């Protein structure tokens, strides 16, 4: 990627954050509760990424997601460690593709513990696919004006004669 001198790149210290050093099976075991626990921070980050279209402007929101993830797993470690380890080990060792279907009993025990001690209910199937409105405190970015080039080719006038395509339309399946 080519970068000019007027592009600001963040310093390494701005990007440095404690990583979530967990295995795939561990992240999968806690994924549903984690998604529910950190929903607001994650939605804020994703909204920032979609609106700004520049990941450099969303560094703080990304750090908030990572901090929320660390906080969640610390709480799980403090209150439901044994149940979580059983579930995570089952996910890791019961299939080659980390399938959750073989671990429903240990999942139920973990879900019950998280609900009783952390008051986080496992979201219903399809919860994360539902459309929701996220209320953000961050102001909406201004839309960039469309670029106007002085040497652009002029467009056809509105009253120009527009003949049909010489060999027909490429959209032959559409009816007029």
Automatic annotation (TrEMBL):
Accessory subunit of the mitochondrial membrane respiratory chain NADH dehydrogenase (Complex I), that is believed not to be involved in catalysis. Complex I functions in the transfer of electrons from NADH to the respiratory chain. The immediate electron acceptor for the enzyme is believed to be ubiquinone. InterPro entries: NDUFA8. GO terms for cellular component: mitochondrial inner membrane. The keyword Disulfide bond applies. GO terms for biological process: mitochondrial electron transport, NADH to ubiquinone. It is found in: Mitochondrion inner membrane. Transmembrane segments: none annotated. Residues 140-162 are annotated as: Disordered. This is NADH dehydrogenase [ubiquinone] 1 alpha subcomplex subunit 8. Belongs to the complex I NDUFA8 subunit family. Keywords: Disulfide bond, Electron transport, Membrane, Mitochondrion, Mitochondrion inner membrane, Repeat, Respiratory chain, Transport. Its main location: mitochondrion.
């Amino acid at each position: 990627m080519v970068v000019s001198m007027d592009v600001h790149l963040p310093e390494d210290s701005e990007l440095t954050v404690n990583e979530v050093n967990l295995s795939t099976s561990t992240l999968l075991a806690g994924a549903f509760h984690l998604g529910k626990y950190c929903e607001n921070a994650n939605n804020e980050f994703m909204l920032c990424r979609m609106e700004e279209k520049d990941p450099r402007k969303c560094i703080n929101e990304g750090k908030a997601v990572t901090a929320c993830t660390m906080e969640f797993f610390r709480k799980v470690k403090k209150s439901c460690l044994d149940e979580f380890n059983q579930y995570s080990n089952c996910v890791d060792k019961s299939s080659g593709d980390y399938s959750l279907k073989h671990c429903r009993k240990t999942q139920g025990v973990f879900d019950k513990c998280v609900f009783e001690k952390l008051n986080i209910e496992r979201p219903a199937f399809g919860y994360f696919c539902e459309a929701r409105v996220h209320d953000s405190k961050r102001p909406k970015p201004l839309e960039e004006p469309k670029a106007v080039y002085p040497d652009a080719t002029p467009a056809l006038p509105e009253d120009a004669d527009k003949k049909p395509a010489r060999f027909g339309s490429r959209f032959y399946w559409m009816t007029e």
